[in-house]
Write a structure and sequence with these properties.
single chain; 429 residues; alpha+beta; 2 domains; seven-stranded mixed sheet; four-stranded antiparallel sheet; 14 helices; transmembrane transporter activity; ABC3_permease_C; transmembrane helix; MacB_PCD; ABC transporter permease
Length: 429
């Protein structure tokens, strides 16, 4: 009963002084709204980036050739230090060979589903009279389409014979078909296109058309007609046109379902370290998208938390405002306090009355702040192009925090009110 009575008194006090109550709540509202809005935007950004990176193959392992760390140089004084070293082009014997890949697949057949290999030929323009399309020519093997699944609209993928004989066949995007064949996929199939790469010209026969999708991380100011899309050709064709040697500087391992990419990453690194131990200039480094996703998520979460803590300082300011108003309220209601104590109210009941009033102020301000914060965070996330994702934990913490602020900053004024001498209080004018 005592709690209900104090609740009624607190609500009546707020209703009587609506403007003062609102201004008291304002600091709490702004603080909680800021924290929730920042956390919502941060969560939305983190979730969107994580999902995008995972869709690119979070469990895949990228293996790349790189020059060994800086060379040791000796100064005139005899001191040794690490210098940047000269950049070197890898020789044929430095490259990752097909024999190494065969050994790797044989040793880890259960962990590796496919090996994705690519060879860039260059960027240029496919032309047919006045019609044109910008393309980036990339040679790929069958394993590539395990890492980057294409939605084939018409035609077929590459056949074994296309790879073995290095045929000049191509899989093109629907954007290219729109530009050069008026969007008719069937008309494009079997047709030949000439691609100008500056000083080089190549002719390809179209065997497939895939659906172009814009990268989640990419943005372009180019018009629809000028968008550069990938033109895929067999890996052996690309190597022949580049006059490349039989070796690779970079590749991707597609791990089997159920494989722990982090653990397998160490095994892959050890495999290549044992084969490049005697190579004085180059080494192989392996990394997974999963580790990058984890690092980026941690970084974004830390940044969001830091900004949220800074925004939370306004909650402290709001709490001080609550304490200030409660002290003013005690001064105004000195006679009321004296009357209640004269009628038998205990110090505990007086103290509880003002603590409950402070908690009510903070709780109502917290609720308004939560609604405002979720709304602002959702709008900001959508304006940035991400799906809004509010944090339930931050909402719960905000409600609890607003109550704690009410108790903490309401305790001193409540304690002061409880200690008032009833006789002196009744004499107060």
């Amino acid at each position: 009963m005592l709690v209900l009575e104090n609740l009624k008194l607190a609500v009546m006090g707020l209703v009587t002084n609506k403007m003062r109550a609102f201004l008291t709540m304002l600091g709490i509202i702004i603080g909680i709204a800021s924290v929730i809005a920042i956390v919502t935007v941060g969560n939305s950004l983190t979730t969107s980036i994580t999902e995008s990176m995972q869709s690119m193959g979070a469990n895949n392992i990228t293996v790349g050739l790189q020059q060994k760390s800086e060379e040791t140089e000796v100064s005139e004084s005899g001191m040794e230090f690490r210098g940047p070293g000269r950049q070197k082009e890898p020789a044929d014997e430095d490259l990752i060979t097909d024999e190494m890949l065969e050994e790797l697949r044989a040793e880890y057949s259960a962990e590796i589903e496919a090996v994705s290999l690519t060879e860039s030929v260059g960027s240029g323009t496919a032309k047919d009279g006045e019609k044109y399309a910008n393309v980036s020519i990339t040679g790929v093997n069958d394993g590539y389409f395990k890492t980057d699944e294409l939605t084939l609209l018409s035609g077929r993928m590459f056949l074994d014979v296309d790879h073995e004989k290095g045929k000049s066949v191509a899989i093109v995007s629907n954007k290219l078909v729109n530009n050069m064949f008026d969007g008719n996929n069937q008309a494009a199939l079997g047709s030949t296109i000439d691609v100008n790469l500056g000083s080089r010209y190549y002719t390809y026969t179209i065997v497939g058309v895939y659906e172009y999708t814009e990268s989640s991380f990419g943005f372009s100011s180019s018009s629809e007609e000028d968008i550069t899309t990938t033109l895929y050709i067999p890996l052996e064709t690309a190597k022949s046109q580049n006059h490349s040697s039989d070796g690779y500087q970079q590749l991707t391992l597609v791990t089997s379902v159920g494989t722990d990419a982090t653990q397998f990453l160490n095994q892959v690194q050890y495999f290549f370290d044992s084969r490049y131990r005697k190579n004085e200039d180059f080494q192989v480094s392996a990394y997974s998208m999963e580790s990058m996703v984890s690092s980026m998520t941690d970084m974004l979460s830390t940044v969001s938390l830091a900004i949220a803590v800074i925004a939370g300082i306004s909650l402290l300011v709001g709490g001080i405002g609550v304490m200030n108003i409660m002290l003013v309220s005690i001064t105004e209601r000195t006679r009321e306090i004296g009357t209640r104590k004269a009628l038998g109210a205990t110090n505990g009941s007086i103290q509880l009355q003002f603590i409950v009033e402070a908690v009510i102020i903070c709780l109502i301000g917290g609720m308004i702040g939560i609604i405002l914060g979720v709304g602002l965070g959702s709008v900001a996330a959508k304006l940035l192009g991400y799906a809004a994702k509010a944090s339930v934990l931050s909402i719960v913490v905000s409600v609890l925090f607003s109550m704690v602020i009410g108790v903490f900053f309401g305790f001193y004024p409540a304690n002061k009110a409880a200690k008032l001498d009833p006789i002196e209080a009744l004499r107060y004018e």
